[in-house]
Each structure stands twice: as structure tokens, then as C-alpha cells.
Amino acid sequence: MDGAGFLLYYPNMNIPTYGLYGEALSLERHDWLHWETIQSRSRLHDYRIAPHRHEQFFQVLYLQGGIARVTLDDIVHDLVPPALAVVPALTVHGYAFSNNVEGIVVTAMERDLAQPGLPLPDAMVLRNGLKPIVAILGRLLAEADRPDSGHDLAMRAQLTLLLVALHRAGRQARPATGPAEPARLHVQAFRALVERRFRETRRVADYAGEIGISQTHLNRVCRQILGASALQVIERRIALEARRQLRFSTVPIKQIGAELGYEDPAYFTRFMTRVLGEAPGGFRKRVRSV
């Protein structure tokens, strides 16, 4: 597997959206990042990872040994080490590895990498100029594995440095995908709006109007790209924030609901019971007793 990328199309394919590969989307709290060896997960799937995508994750795959065929949207790249693949959220990606593959996959939440004035990199493959990136990855994983005082500040600093290093290396790299299709651009804009406004409004029409498309079209592209309605995307973000508040704060449940746009405490309790499978009070008590 040696050569330039080539096109690969997925006509009428239902691309699954996962948390991590092989794991359904979850509302469980995520820490700053998850990392694992390529070997540990790929061997569970006979070294073939079928095309899939993540709604909120940004991934970096660093190939240190063996060989890999990496699919990013509609382009396939054959990699020999050292090489690095950058996989933003919503990018359809898949892998085929040799059984002696070595390397790591680092997964972070896109919102934790977002920096004013510094957009997230596009999907790409890097083969040169990797030394600064690898050094930052080493410091990032060391901090993640052995947190000390100022851990959150250190993690944010290392993630920012990683983002800068990827941008610098990417200036010389041809993007790994062609132009993003309109549906994916609309979903990206919608998710960014949800991140900013989920406390203010749950009305799909508000988001569709700001993006400049109809409510019907927004629902259509969300189902196409994310496998969920626009309202479900909004509610998942609200539920994630509510879970964090219930787990880590002492704020009364009524106040949490009000801050998330649910003035009626009974309505908020019903909503959270539906998404949690238990009442918010019971959830708070259970997670704090663990």
C-alpha cells in the first residue's frame, strides 16, 4: 500500500455515527481526551475499521510501525511510518492496518480544542514535519495520564499547542478531502450554533433561520449526517450539560433547569428522566455515591 490518495465513493451508504469506533453515542461525561494504541482497538476488528464518523470528536492517528490504508471522506491514502492522519468531527473515515501496526489514536472533544481566531484543521494526512507534533502529543498524554495541580490549564495549553502545530504542518500538506459538501457545512454550522446557544433556545427554527436554511432542510441534513433530528442534537447537548451540573455542582435541580431554558421544573424533570432513564435527583445521588 504505497502511493498517492485515490477517490472512493459511498453511494447510498448509511454511515454510522459512533462515540469511539464500535461504541454507540453516549451522554456520559468525557474528560479532556481519550487515547489508546492503534493495535488495541484494531485487533478487535481484524485490523479493519469500517467507514464511520463522530459527531463531536477530533482525532489524531499517529502511525509508528506497520502500514495503513486510511480513508478520509472520499479519498484513500496509503501510509508508511512515520505518518499522521487528522480527522475532524463528521469526517467519514475508515482504516485497514497490517497486523504489526504500531501507533496511537488521540481523541478530544472538538469544543475543547476550539480557539478564537484559530479554526480547527481540515482532514489531512501529514508525512513530514511531524517532530513538533509528536513532542506535543507526548507531553499531552503524560499530563493526561499523570494529572497534577493546574491540570485543566496544562491540558488546555497542550491542546492549543497541538492545534498550532497541526496548522503549521498542514500549510504544506494538501487537504485529504475535496470540498466539503453543503450538507456537512450546514451541520457544522448548526453544531457550532448549538454550542453557543443551547442555553437560550431549543427552537429548531431559530437555528435554521440563523444558518439561512429551512427548518425542514436542517432536519434533513442532520438525519443524513448525524442520524438524528435537529431537536435531538439540541437536546443531547442540553442533557450533557445537565449531567455535568448534576454530577459536579451543588446547584439545585430547579435552578439547573432554569439556566438551561426549562422554567417549569416538572417539565425539566420529565425531560431528564426521559434521557437519563431516571429522575435527576436519583441520578445525582447515585453518581455521587460512586
What this model shows, in words?
With 290 residues, the chain is an alpha+beta fold. The protein folds into 2 domains: 3-170, Regulatory protein AraC (Jelly Rolls, Sandwich), CATH 2.60.120; 182-289, Homeodomain-like (Arc Repressor Mutant, subunit A, Orthogonal Bundle). It contains 11 helices and 11 strands. It has helices spanning 38-42, 110-113, 131-145, 151-170, 182-197, 204-211, 215-226, 230-248, 253-259, 265-276, 280-289; strands spanning 3-7, 17-18, 33-37, 48-54, 57-65, 68-72, 75-79, 83-87, 93-97, 102-109, 124-126. The strands form 2 sheets. Strands 1-7-6-9-4-2 form a 6-stranded mixed beta sheet, with no helix packed on it. Strand 6 (68-72) and strand 7 (75-79) form a beta hairpin. The chain starts with a strand and ends with a helix. Mean pLDDT is 83; it is low at 1-13 and 24-30.
Characteristics of this structure?
about 290 residues, 11 helices, Jelly Rolls, 11 strands, alpha+beta, Arc Repressor Mutant, subunit A
